[in-house]
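User: Structure with copper (II) ion, tokens only please.
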Amino acid sequence: MAALATRLLVSLALLSLACIPLASWPQSDDNAQGEVRKVDRDSRKITIKHGQIKSLDMPPMTMAFTVKDPALLDAAQAGDKVRFGVAREDGKFVVTAIEVAP
Ligand SMILES: [Cu+2]
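Assistant:
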């Protein structure tokens, strides 16, 4: 259990390091891919059915993310296939960048 906690802490530390240089678009291979289900401007959230996100150790699922900048909500709409950057901030998963997949 302690080993697991240590590994988790190390991953989180690496993740926060990895996030520092990100101005707007993450350059890593860990950009998540998914399909937008819902855009909720009132609560500043976007619901995405996403694939595995290795950097966050997250399996595929549909979930709502808060967006870092409300302008990101204009970048995609329900039904769009997207790739997006996600970071962990204050215990929440926050979308830091989003782009409709080519
Ligand atoms: Cu998820």
